[in-house]
């Protein structure tokens, strides 16, 4: 068996041969002529001349071979619904949806905007687009009308599909009026809005001539047979806007063939799932993890995929583990932020379920601190694999790859560069870092299959945003900051513009957060750099305690602050010691669970936090304001 090192080396040194082999994991109507066309750097085309279809690979081929096998397992703890769709059922629903789209005028290459809660129809809609060669753009359901409108104007969809309402924590979130407002705000609203009426928001308004009822259309197309449209490998499959943590979201454009091959390969080498197995990914279809690993990859691999609507702790903190037990989940994928939520709960929830089917838990999206990593790995007693990636790449950049070699896991590290990625760390002058030296995480192009091919409609922005860090060499910049140890294990230290510069020493926010988190009372923390006349910048920490009452009095808070400072001294040295540690009950995050450090920093420096359309809970900002003003007054 080939080990990780040889596998990775071949993917870089014999790119063509390596990816030709991987391309055999998917069905092609016409086999590719050229594996990699890199004649126009940094743009790359994979599997040129090959024609294929994502929906065929995800649905049709399995429906033909194993029609009764489960494909989509839908679980909603919001509406108390559970339903399993076989591959044959899924194909039938996708064909109906495709027929509806065609009737509403959607053609190959047209965009369809999907603004949906986590319901099966969202999955049907994505696959129906893929089937007919339409380009989907999924926008996280519940985004404010202004955010939705900017995405409408950028993607210019001919059709939008939505629902009357989403649900979260038992509360209805009406969507339809947000859709109406967004269509009013947009300069290029879609001709039609297809509405899935869940019966949650009874009295939503309908616009005559524009709004179309899904149930009615579905009845019309009971026996729809819609053949797949064979697409050239480079034709776009979808547009997905980045989370917008660092500013204006970018429309990431993905191809068809490269994405299909990258996902199929990742299921074999990295996530290790195949026919007869079940995957449970707790993300949302509005994010890249949802696109790749709730919908496309597990289905391409012939697995059953669990689509979950609800939170990790409702009706109780055992809900996810019961899903694992009931559906014999083999591969689970979640986010550090969810695990930190579960860490605050009783571990009996986890231990009362039979989790013996579970092979691996994958986590991605945010730095996974060592303490949380160790905790969940020890409780589950299986490998917990941190993987680092971006909307831009569509699949992991750094990860352990148990399908290739069972390399030991180091807590706090997403292990090694994934095959296909020529990943390096760079100094500011473009030279390469050595071991144990912090630098910018860069990828020497061409980017592997599955990664973004351009920014939708803005080739120049693709080059200026991602390939302009150095004049020479030409490198894809991740805008993240990382380090590699003597054994080749990487750690992501934070985003480049979050680096804290204390008296000339550059510290990643992650390093200080990691140190604060070694204090057993801390559940979660955000560290930001705050302007300081003497030192340039000083770190400031905002911590959530496991026991909120532990810092109820000013004396207790002072004592805890001193203890935490000592932890940082031990772990990192006095240079990283926070100027202040404030205690709050929650931290400002995007709806995808990413820390809004920029907003915290702005408040700490007495500035306006700016546009926060993507914030999950605005009251977290008010708390930070309050804490800061208490000290200013005191
Ligand atoms: P925008 O680019 O619009 O500001 P965003 O970067 O938050 O948004 P995503 O593409 O969803 O949008 O997030 C990718 C980023 O998340 C990475 O660049 C990195 O900063 C962080 N990240 C993802 N996975 C990990 C991980 N395993 N460890 C550390 N950081 C991670
Ligand atoms: Mg980003």
Automatic annotation (TrEMBL):
PROSITE patterns: AMP_BINDING. Residues 609-634 are annotated as: Disordered. InterPro entries: ACAS_N, AMP-bd_C, AMP-bd_C_sf, AMP-binding_CS, AMP-dep_synth/lig_dom, ANL_N_sf, Propion_PrpE. Pfam families: ACAS_N, AMP-binding, AMP-binding_C. Gene3D superfamilies: 3.30.300.30, N-terminal domain of ligase-like. GO terms for biological process: propionate catabolic process, 2-methylcitrate cycle. It comes from the Bacteria. Keywords: ATP-binding, Ligase, Nucleotide-binding. The keyword DNA repair does not apply. Residues 511-594 form the AMP-binding enzyme C-terminal domain. One of its GO terms (molecular function) is ATP binding. The keyword Ligase applies. Residues 4-58 form the Acetyl-coenzyme A synthetase N-terminal domain. Residues 624-634 have a biased composition (Basic and acidic residues). Residues 60-441 form the AMP-dependent synthetase/ligase domain. NCBIfam families: PRK00174.1, PRK10524.1, propion_prpE. Belongs to the ATP-dependent AMP-binding enzyme family. This is Propionate--CoA ligase. It comes from Pseudazoarcus pumilus.
């Amino acid at each position: 068996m080939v080990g990780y090192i040889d596998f990775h080396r071949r993917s870089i040194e014999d790119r063509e041969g390596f990816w030709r082999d991987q391309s055999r994991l998917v069905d092609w109507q016409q086999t590719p002529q050229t594996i990699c066309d890199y004649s126009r750097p940094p743009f790359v085309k994979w599997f040129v001349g090959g024609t294929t279809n994502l929906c065929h690979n995800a649905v049709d081929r399995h429906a033909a071979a194993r029609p009764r096998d489960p494909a989509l397992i839908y679980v909603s703890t919001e509406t108390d619904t559970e339903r399993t769709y076989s591959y044959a059922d899924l194909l039938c629903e996708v064909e109906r949806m495709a027929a509806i789209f065609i009737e509403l005028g959607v053609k190959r290459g047209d965009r369809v905007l999907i603004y949906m809660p986590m319901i099966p129809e969202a999955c049907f809609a994505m696959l129906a687009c893929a089937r007919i060669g339409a380009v989907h753009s999924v926008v996280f359901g519940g985004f404010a009308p202004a955010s939705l409108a900017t995405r409408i104007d950028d993607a210019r969809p001919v059709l939008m599909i939505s629902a009357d309402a989403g649900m979260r924590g038992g509360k209805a979130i009406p969507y339809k009026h947000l859709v109406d407002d967004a269509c009013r705000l947009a300069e290029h609203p879609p001709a039609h809005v297809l509405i899935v009426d869940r019966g949650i928001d009874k009295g939503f308004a309908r616009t005559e001539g524009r709004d179309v009822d899904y149930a009615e259309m579905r009845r019309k197309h009971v026996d729809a047979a819609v053949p797949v449209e064979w697409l050239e490998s480079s034709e776009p499959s979808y547009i997905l806007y980045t989370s917008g943590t660092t500013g204006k979201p970018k429309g990431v454009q993905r191809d068809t063939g490269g994405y299909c091959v990258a996902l199929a390969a990742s299921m074999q080498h990295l996530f290790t799932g195949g026919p007869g197995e079940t995957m449970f990914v707790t993300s949302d279809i509005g994010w890249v993890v949802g696109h790749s690993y709730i919908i496309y990859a597990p289905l391409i691999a012939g697995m059953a995929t669990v689509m979950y609507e609800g939170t990790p702790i409702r009706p109780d903190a055992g809900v996810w583990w019961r899903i694992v037990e009931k559906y014999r989940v083999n591969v689970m994928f979640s986010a550090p932020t969810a695990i930190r939520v579960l860490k605050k709960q009783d571990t009996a929830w986890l231990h009362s379920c039979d989790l013996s089917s579970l092979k691996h838990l994958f986590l991605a999206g945010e730095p996974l601190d060592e303490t949380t990593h160790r905790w969940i790995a020890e409780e589950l007693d299986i490998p917990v694999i941190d993987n680092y990636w971006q909307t831009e790449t569509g699949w992991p950049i750094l990860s352990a790859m148990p399908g290739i070699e069972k390399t030991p896991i180091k807590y706090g590290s997403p292990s090694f560069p994934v095959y296909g990625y020529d990943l390096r760390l760079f100094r500011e002058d473009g030279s390469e870092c050595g071991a144990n030296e912090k630098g910018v995480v860069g990828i020497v192009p061409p980017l592997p299959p599955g990664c973004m091919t351009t920014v939708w409609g803005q080739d120049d922005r693709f080059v200026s945003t991602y390939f302009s860090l150095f004049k020479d060499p030409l490198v894809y910049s991740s805008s993240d900051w990382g380090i590699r140890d003597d054994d080749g294990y990487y750690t992501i230290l934070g985003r480049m513009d979050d680096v804290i510069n204390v008296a000339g020493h550059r510290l990643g926010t992650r390093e200080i957060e990691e140190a604060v988190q070694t204090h057993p009372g801390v559940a979660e923390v955000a560290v930001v750099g705050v302007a300081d006349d003497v030192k340039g910048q000083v770190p400031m920490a905002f911590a959530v305690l496991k026991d909120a009452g532990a810092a109820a009095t000013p004396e207790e808070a002072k004592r805890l602050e001193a203890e935490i400072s000592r932890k940082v001294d031990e772990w990192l040295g006095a240079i990283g010691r926070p100027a202040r540690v404030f205690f709050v009950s929650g931290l400002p995050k995007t709806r995808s669970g990413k820390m809004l450090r920029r907003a915290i920093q702005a408040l700490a420096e007495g500035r306006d936090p700016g546009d926060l359309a993507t914030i999950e809970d605005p009251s977290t900002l008010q708390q930070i304001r309050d804490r800061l003003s208490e000290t200013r007054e005191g």
